[in-house]
Automatic annotation (TrEMBL), chain A:
InterPro entries the UniProt entry points to: Beta-lactam/transpept, Beta-lactam/transpept-like, PBP_dimer_sf, PBPA_dimer, PCN-bd_Tpept
Protein name per its UniProtKB record: Penicillin-binding transpeptidase domain-containing protein
One Pfam family, short name: Transpeptidase
Start and end residues of each Penicillin-binding protein transpeptidase domain: 155-479
Penicillin binding protein A dimerisation domain ranges (all copies): 52-134
Automatic annotation (TrEMBL), chain B:
Name of the protein this chain belongs to: FtsW/RodA/SpoVE family cell cycle protein
Pfam families given in the database record: FTSW_RODA_SPOVE (PF01098)
Record keywords, A-Z: Cell shape, Membrane, Transmembrane, Transmembrane helix
Subcellular location: Membrane
Membrane topology label: Multi-pass membrane protein
Database matches in PANTHER family: CELL CYCLE PROTEIN (PTHR30474), PEPTIDOGLYCAN GLYCOSYLTRANSFERASE RODA (PTHR30474:SF3)
Annotated source species: Agromyces salentinus
Transmembrane segments: 43-66, 72-93, 100-116, 136-153, 160-179, 191-220, 241-258, 264-280, 287-306, 376-397, 409-430, 442-463
Region (Disordered): 1-29
Length: 484, 477
């Protein structure tokens, strides 16, 4: 009987060995990945038990933690909630964080590996743990101006600094008050959240970096123009046939210029004029000559099909693959399935303003530990060169003409030369247009690159157009920041 | 492998079982023996165990409340009095019993109470509503039951006489929850009986003791016909059809438990217990192979045909899929939250009162091991597992050193049932096997489980006393 007993005790031992191994795997080897699971509310609780660091704009907090008397110990407060909602995001007690609250959670909650020694230090010296503070690049003047200028339109405004990629303003509307989503009354928060989800205006979308992505329409002509000039086969004076309508090869689809008719007078039209007046037919022709591969290559050099992290993750703008000729023609003036975010278009303008070099867009200037030691500085970083300096100079000139004497005339500012391009993109046959403006100022010494997106036709259905609604918004914001 | 055991003391080939010692040796004999060396060791270990338990409650209060509340400490002290009562009883009726069993059971019981108390604080329960106060009351009843067992059963051979009665009791206990009006369904499993609003009771826990007694008795009586006769097939000796009877009956019983009481864990426990005892008694591996294949086949069919079994398997295999996580009822939410809790504990735990074990459903009963793992860490769990290993090892020791086959078999059965239960419930929580609802012995909140396990301890103590009592065998304490 004892031989069997010995075997059974080995089985029992193996059963316990399995438990030793399984708990070790869970508590040691996969502890980190389990903690990173977004459904893990314990991680959230842990991040609440420390005083979360503030998010600062020019030294003024736009998100901070205040002591509260309940289990969570601290309440997150957003002093100017709706204005900065697109930037800060929010960190609810019972859900997933968004915005910088999510992407910089490690630092804000004091859990980042670079804060390890600070944490130990505080533990030994008996101080309460505290998160790092985050200085962001947002310029309060630009942010407020963008907020005011966008008014009640559904859309977004992004302002960046061309030389560095710093994001100076990021506004999206309609928006929400993050304070209502971080209350410790989780039932109330749930009701608010569901209300926001059900709102047809989709206030939870950050339209500056994602949301229901829009076709860029004519602002995409900047990318196609860049591709043409970079190919070396075209100059601004290159000419294209100038018919009143263009039937796409192999289809019944007819392309017309906005407003109908030809693009200016004459049987041919130059690239410069086509861009200045924003005509569709010459660009359809140019697009077919370039081919979709050349356009995609240029678009990707500007950052299309790439997910910028600012450091919050953004939606990549899309230039699709495998287009046939008529599809390529449509894509050349930003239609078909081309999609862009205002952030992406701001990157395009900023690259042109910056002599062709694309800077990675970025919201954060620096992160400072509670003891004021800098934890991380955000140096401007290059994404790459999109176009040559010559091309950049040429395009600046063409865009300046577009504002001074072209389709983007409503962005004109007295005493300052503005470079810009408008867009009026079609969505569905009867759907309201999407209105765009992208550009920078001053054209000769670019300080600010701006992109304005207005969805839903600015409330005018198919009557609104970029120069009517989007360009004046850009003008108002640029005036505010230039007059600082 | 030789026929001698690990220590080489006993040869299994000796066909004659030595007669069991009489219930109590004459008084004259007791006096000449050594002073109560084992009991003195037990006394000090017990003192340590009670100190650990009191510290645990104080630590919970400091961690979760930030102050010390003497009420619960006093209640805990009452329990200490009871375990010392058991200790004193043993000085009279089981002076040579194993000195480790009682302290181990005491520490496990105390750690369980501390963790349950910590969850009560998180839930804001206090007084008679709180699980910890009820657990202390149940512990008192359980220890008294153990003392009663000690006093009532002076010689385990008595149980041999009641082999078939035990079998009958086991089946009646198992069927009780199915009686209309008496049975109650909790969390989808119909394994409870209720006495009005006063208390619910899980008779299946007690049934496992009755089953162990029945198996031991039955197998000792019939081992020869079971092990000697049979047809050889594929190099293994398979039993005759008529000897298959008991195997098939127990198998059918287990399957009935799965189907009618929706309780996979209990079925697995009973069947595992039966197979191990059968193997030890008959040394026929073919039985085990046959039994395991039968059970696996049954479980496989159940997983295909019974929705709740199928869900358990899915939860086990892909707990993190959104579909399983969000499924309600029967999703993997509990399992995943338990894993999050364990991960939150890490190597050294958050400390009592500093974790969030209350996020996980039923953190004080089925999931107490996840709660302990979160707040005491991997280090704490290893210590708890080590205590179980020690407890089980002491039980197996009785099997090795026992004088009679019935006692050996019963000792192994009882020790193995504790090991298997720990494996099934902890293995379920940590994804070694599909999750089934069982209580963690001594730790989890629940009266029936406590009573059953304390009676098991009493029986093991009684068995170990018989082993040591035998003059031929002196085992170092």
């Amino acid at each position: 009987m004892n031989r069997e007993l010995k075997r059974v005790s080995i089985v029992a031992l193996l059963m316990f060995a399995a438990l030793f191994v399984s708990t070790t795997i869970i508590q040691y080897f996969s502890a980190e990945s389990l903690a990173a699971d977004p459904r893990n509310s314990r991680t959230l609780y842990a991040s609440y038990s420390v005083e979360r660091g503030p998010i600062l704009v020019d030294g003024t907090p736009v998100a901070l933690s205040q002591p509260s008397d309940d289990d969570y110990k601290f309440l997150r407060v957003y002093p100017n909630g709706p204005l900065y909602a697109a930037v800060t995001g929010y960190i609810p007690v019972n859900g997933e964080a968004t915005g910088l609250e999510s992407s910089l959670n490690d630092y804000l909650s004091g859990q980042a590996s670079s804060q390890f020694f600070d944490k130990i230090n505080r533990l030994i010296s008996g101080q309460d743990p505290m998160g790092a503070s985050v200085d962001i690049a947002i310029d309060p003047v630009a942010q407020q101006a963008a907020w005011d200028a966008l008014g009640d339109y559904q859309g977004a405004v992004v302002v960046t600094e061309p030389a560095t990629g710093r994001i100076l303003a990021m506004v999206t509307k309609p928006t929400f008050d993050p304070n209502t989503l971080v209350s410790h009354n989780t039932e109330e928060v749930q009701v608010t959240y569901e209300g926001l989800l059900a709102d047809p205006g989709k206030p939870l979308f950050n339209r500056a970096t994602g949301g229901d992505m829009n076709p860029p329409g004519s602002v995409f002509k900047l990318v196609v123009t860049a591709a043409a000039l970079e190919s070396g086969r075209y100059t601004p004076e290159s000419t294209f046939p100038n018919p009143g309508t263009l039937t796409l090869p192999g289809t019944d689809s007819v392309v017309i210029n906005s407003g109908g008719g030809t693009c200016g007078d004459g049987s041919t039209v130059t690239l410069a004029t086509a861009l200045r007046l924003s005509c569709n037919i010459p660009f359809a022709e140019l697009g077919m000559e370039l081919g979709d591969d050349a356009i995609r290559e240029q678009a990707e050099k500007f950052g299309f099909n790439h997910e910028f992290e600012i450091p919050t993750a953004t939606e990549p703008s899309v230039y699709p693959r495998g287009l046939d000729e008529p599809q390529t023609a449509l894509s050349a003036f930003g239609q078909y399935t081309v999609r862009a975010t205002p952030l992406q278009m701001a990157v395009v303008s900023a690259a042109i303003a910056n002599g062709g070099i694309v800077m990675n867009p970025n919201l954060v200037d620096g992160i400072t530990a509670p003891d004021f030691a800098p934890l991380q500085e955000f140096e401007p970083s290059e994404f790459g060169r999109a176009i040559s300096e010559d091309t950049a100079r040429t395009m600046t000139e063409m865009m300046t003409n577009g504002v001074e004497d072209g389709a983007a005339s409503n962005a004109r500012i007295d005493g300052v030369s503005v470079a810009g391009k408008t867009g009026t993109a079609e969505n569905g046959e009867d759907d309201p247009y999407t209105l765009w403006f992208t550009g920078f100022a001053p054209a000769d010494n670019p300080q600010y690159a701006i992109t304005v997106l207005v969805e839903d036709g600015g409330g005018l259905g198919q009557e609104g157009y970029g120069n009517l609604i989007a360009a004046p918004i850009a003008k108002q914001v640029l005036e505010a920041v230039l007059n600082k | 492998m030789s026929d001698t055991d690990a220590t080489g003391r006993i040869s299994t080939s000796s066909p004659v079982t030595p007669p069991a010692p009489t219930a109590t040796p004459p008084d004259g004999m007791r006096r000449i023996r050594m002073p109560q060396r084992l009991r003195n060791l037990e006394f000090w270990l017990l003192l340590m165990a009670c100190f650990i338990n009191a510290s645990a409650i104080v630590l919970v209060q400091l961690g979760a409340l930030g102050r010390i509340d003497t009420q619960l400490v006093l209640l805990g002290a009452g329990l200490s009095v009871l375990v010392f009562g058991l200790h004193i009883v043993m000085r009279f009726v089981a002076r040579d019993a194993d000195p480790f069993l009682l302290p181990i059971a005491t520490v496990l019981n105390g750690l369980g109470i501390a963790q349950i108390y910590r969850i009560d604080i998180a839930f804001g329960d206090s007084g008679w509503e709180s699980a910890s106060v009820r657990q202390i009351a149940w512990s008192a009843i359980a220890i008294i039951a153990a003392i009663g067992t000690m006093l009532l059963i002076r010689n385990h051979r008595v149980l041999f006489r009641y082999t078939y009665l035990s079998g009958l009791i086991a089946i009646v206990l198992l069927l009780l929850p199915l009686v209309p009006g008496l049975g109650q369904e909790i969390n989808g499993a119909r394994v409870w009986i209720s006495f009005g609003s006063f208390a619910t009771f899980q008779p299946g826990e007690i049934a496992k003791i009755a089953l162990a007694v029945f198996f031991a008795g039955y197998l000792v009586r019939n081992r020869d016909s079971l092990s000697m006769v049979g047809t050889k097939f594929l190099g293994m000796r398979f039993p005759r059809a008529r000897d298959l009877g008991p195997l098939l009956i127990v198998w059918a019983l287990s399957m009935a438990v799965i189907v009618f009481q929706r309780d996979l864990g209990t079925a697995l426990l009973y069947f595992g217990l039966f197979l191990v005892m059968l193997y030890v008694a008959t040394s026929r591996l073919s039985w085990v192979v046959l039994g395991l294949s039968l059970f696996l086949a049954g479980a496989l069919i159940a997983s295909q045909t019974l929705d709740y079994v199928h869900a358990r398997f899915e939860n086990w295999l892909v707990p993190f899929s959104d579909a399983r996580y969000d499924a309600d009822p029967g999703g993997s939410y509990q399992l995943v939250q338990g894993l999050f809790g364990l991960a939150n504990g890490g190597l050294i735990g958050t400390g009592w009162g500093r974790g969030s074990p209350d996020i996980t459903p039923v953190p004080q009963s089925d999931y107490i091991i996840a709660s302990l793992g979160e707040e005491l860490g991997l280090a704490g769990l290893f210590a708890i597992f080590a205590l179980y290993v020690l407890l089980v090892a002491r039980g197996f020791r009785i099997g090795f050193a026992g004088q009679d086959d019935f006692g050996k078999l019963l000792g192994v059965g009882l020790a193995f049932v504790v090991a298997l239960q720990v494996f099934i419930v902890v293995g379920g929580v940590t994804r070694v096997i599909p999750l089934t609802g069982l209580t963690t012995p001594f730790l989890a909140a629940g009266g029936s489980s406590l009573i059953a396990n304390w009676i098991i301890v009493a029986l093991l103590l009684r068995l170990s006393d018989t082993v040591r009592n035998h003059p031929r065998l002196v085992i170092d304490g």
